[in-house]
Amino acid sequence: MVGRILEINRLQESFKSDFSELIAVYGRRRIGKTYLIRNVFAKYIKFETTGLYKGSPEQQIGVFFRELQQRTDRFSKDSIPSNWEQAFELLKKYLNGLKGKNKKVIFIDEFPWFDTHKSDFIKYFGHFWNSYCEKRKDILLIVCGSAASYMIKNIVTNRGSLYARLSYSIRLLPFSLYETKLYLQSKQIRWSHYQILQLYTCIGGIPHYLSKIKKEESVVQNIQRLCFDQNADLSTEFKIVFESLFDHSETHHSIVRKLGASRAGMTRDELIQKTGFTGGGFFSKVLEELIASGFVSEYPAYRNKSKMTLFRLSDEYSRFYLKYIEGNNNQGKNFWKTMSQQQSYLSWAGYNFETVCLKHIDNIKKALGIEGIHSLCSSWTGNGAQIDLLIDRKDNWINICEMKFYNSEYIIDKSEYQKLRDKIQRFTEQTASKATIALTLITIFGVKNNEYAQDIVNDNLKADLLFEPLK
Q1: Domain check: are 336 and 270 in the same one?
Q2: Domain limits at 430?
Q3: Spatial CA neighbour of 167 closest among 384, 41, 19, 40
Q4: Mind listing the pLDDT tens digit for each residue in 59-98?
Q5: Are 186 and 45 in the same domain?
Q6: How many CA atoms lie within 13 A of 330 on its CB side?
């Protein structure tokens, strides 16, 4: 396996512990949850079942029961249980018949799909854990789901029978740039950091998408094949992912589309106004689901001004789909080669590069040598100016970070120099900040050393820092 070091270590520690453990793993589709569990516990999974998408209660119980029949001959002549109480009783009988001192790993994948309306699945699952598993010392029960909001509400923060029963939860995130580089290298693909960034800003660090990359093709050719050719693998992924994750996904689509059209991100009030929704509980629930699933990120405003908190569409593939894939199928073999050379693409990629940097803030702090200094990261919007990343440090310094996506050295000319000075001045005046301001530029190939750069740039960082491993 590539990456997932922290997750693997924690799972292995749970396997070696002296008591039974209940673990929840969640994250968006295609992120590698099932692959992780199967690889870590390949020799020790004693029961594995996967929920049936939009299946009825009877169908879900049937899937559960047939897995038991495949594991043992004891139930070969039994009828399908009529309810979940009976189904979990059969699982107990099966586990009672297993020998050996090692933990018995039970893996229930796509857990939310089992919990159909009025099925009492979650009730009897809780009873199974409380009355049986906790009394033993050798059960490692792992529940996994793509519907992050369900997993958080019903497992992670459950206030019913599973309250305080969870050992811990793992939210599986897309690969970082470092992990993406390792994964591509495992496929004998040795691209430059700039080439990997070109790919990452289009499809992100989703392992399933990265698995489709071919080493004999260039970045442009891979994106063309995956996104724009006839029957391209990722041409319909946007719709499939949202429909499989969310009920009433039209609302999620609407929010994502509005955020996708915004370069700067939106406040909650702006998002409500643009979508035409009321700001009630349903809107909050949908927004929380998008955040929990990793499609939308929330960036606090400087000095915690909650009304100025920004929401951004942070899923790279979704942004790329809305900007370029949608409506552009079968445009010819050279479509992406042509589009990727246009200035409009470079401007769009610049925004996505900002989003990528915001996901790698710890790398930026490490490069600045301030990882040991307590700091708060935020955004700031003032009259005619916006700063996407402020690092407000306890040593009374503030790093104003500017991220620039260029295919050569970034040149600060007189006009750009004035814009940067104006931005710093407006921030200082409007916030009345007494901190020392340091302008930090993060670019692909660095900043050209001229009189303007020497006067205004404190930290000249290259995108290579984003590929560094973190402890």
Answers
A1: no
A2: 360-467
A3: 19
A4: 999 999 999 999 999 999 999 999 999 999 999 999 999 9
A5: no
A6: 2
